[in-house]
Automatic annotation (TrEMBL):
<dbReference type="InterPro" id="IPR017926">
    <property type="entry name" value="GATASE"/>
</dbReference>
<keyword id="KW-0315">Glutamine amidotransferase</keyword>
<dbReference type="InterPro" id="IPR044992">
    <property type="entry name" value="ChyE-like"/>
</dbReference>
<feature type="domain" description="Glutamine amidotransferase">
    <location>
        <begin position="49"/>
        <end position="193"/>
    </location>
</feature>
<dbReference type="Pfam" id="PF00117">
    <property type="entry name" value="GATase"/>
</dbReference>
<dbReference type="InterPro" id="IPR029062">
    <property type="entry name" value="Class_I_gatase-like"/>
</dbReference>
<protein>
    <submittedName>
        <fullName>Glutamine amidotransferase</fullName>
    </submittedName>
</protein>
Length: 243
């Protein structure tokens, strides 16, 4: 099988490594089956799509909807590189899964509306499949309603033209959509487990994803949640597109 490619943008080593481990576990992949490139560390190397089964873009401290004036030079470079790659992905309908930051990038790139209307604090939320989601080749692997972990300051508030809504949430109307047949984006994190999000909130406690004074309540909500379905999406992605 050709490897999948994870494009990551977390500058904190622990967070970056935990994210990579999460995608490996969720997709039941070996390290040689998931090639990681940390875009925040260096310019994107040349990427030949023919060498990969699919591309995954994980979460990020970056917000795609921020104005160019407040984005760092690193973020502007990363987003220019990803925009050029997305042009190739969309032109070929190449297998793609963008999670959290990935859904924001795809929304912006395709002229949907990305803003802070439907932000969600870090923790569990309930997700429901739409009729189209229940019939989708990937999302059909999930039960109709399930818990997943989120934590985002921006979200898609208007789908890009031609996008198909696959899942909605109790606090965020667009939790997943598809473009073409093979390009997917989710607001929730398919790679996060209970242990993974506890690591994430510890690292990003002061980054505005929740009230740091409410940490105990956030942890209690996480401990009380049962989050097993999202990983099935990663397994379905790998099963369908691994070649």
């Amino acid at each position: 099988m050709k490897p999948f490619l994870l494009l990551a943008t977390r500058s904190e080593d622990e967070a970056a490594d935990d994210e990579y481990a999460g995608f490996l576990a969720a997709g039941d992949l070996e390290p040689d089956q998931l090639h990681r490139v940390r875009l925040e560390a260096a310019p994107m190397p040349p990427i030949d799509l023919n060498g990969y089964s699919g591309i995954i873009v994980g979460g990020s401290p970056f917000n795609a909807s921020d104005s160019a004036e407040i984005k760092s030079s690193v973020q502007r470079r990363v987003e220019a590189e990803l925009a050029a790659l997305l042009d190739q992905v969309l032109a070929r309908d190449f297998p793609f899964l963008g999670a959290c930051y990935g859904v924001g990038l795809l929304t912006s790139h395709l002229s949907g509306r990305l803003d802070r209307t439907w932000s969600e604090e870090a923790g569990p939320t309930w997700i429901s499949l739409t009729e189209a989601g229940a019939a989708d080749q990937l999302f059909a692997a999930l039960v109709p309603t399930f818990q997943a972990f989120v934590g985002h300051k921006e979200a898609c508030s208007e789908l890009p033209p031609g996008a198909v809504l696959l899942a909605t949430g109790q606090n965020c109307p667009v939790q997943a959509f598809r473009v073409g047949n093979n390009v997917y984006a989710t607001q929730f994190h398919p790679e996060l487990t209970n242990a993974g999000i506890l690591t994430r909130i510890r690292i990003y406690r002061e980054s505005g994803y929740f009230d740091p004074d409410a940490l105990d309540d956030v942890i209690a909500a996480i401990d009380a949640s049962i989050v097993t379905e999202p990983a099935k999406l990663m397994k379905a992605f790998v099963s369908r597109f691994g070649r």
